[in-house]
Design goal:
Layout: H1 10-24, H2 41-54, H3 74-84, H4 89-96, H5 99-105, H6 111-120, H7 124-131
């Protein structure tokens, strides 16, 4: 099956390809793509993934779902699972000091950390509430 040419997104794809090149040299990049359903967000991301693959850069996917009962942060769980197939994401997160927080998003990826964070650490919700200005106090 032949892939149809991407039409009308040359500027966006060029910017993304440039940011991919920057990221490959160590410059941190984050690109968010938004818009109404059907405008070509997924198609644009697919094109970027093809460019990345051609350069030997892996990509992972997560798909957002808007249905009742979807697990919280489903998209990010999928992304973390995909990354865990490419690298030791649990160890990287541990080194960066974010493993406990990420374990709440994807407990299956951070199984050992998830257990420790529940028993040894204050939850992220509680930490957030404690960081908010309020007349009360947090212990």
């Amino acid at each position: 099956m032949t892939r149809a040419a991407l039409v009308g997104r040359e500027r966006e794809l060029s910017a993304l390809a440039g940011w991919l090149a920057d990221a490959c040299t160590g410059t941190t990049r984050l690109a968010l793509c938004g818009g109404e359903p059907g405008v070509g967000k997924t198609r644009l991301a697919e094109e970027l993934a093809l460019i990345a693959r051609a350069q030997g850069v892996p990509s992972v996917w997560g798909r957002a779902v808007e249905v009742e009962g979807a697990p919280p942060y489903w998209l990010w769980r999928q992304v973390l699972r995909g990354i865990s197939e490419l690298a030791d994401v649990a160890q990287i997160a541990e080194n960066l000091g974010v493993a406990g927080d990420l374990a709440m998003l994807a407990p299956d990826v951070f199984a050992g950390v998830a257990q420790r964070s529940v028993t040894d650490d204050q939850g992220a919700d509680e930490r957030f509430e404690c960081s908010m200005p309020s007349p009360g106090f947090c212990v």
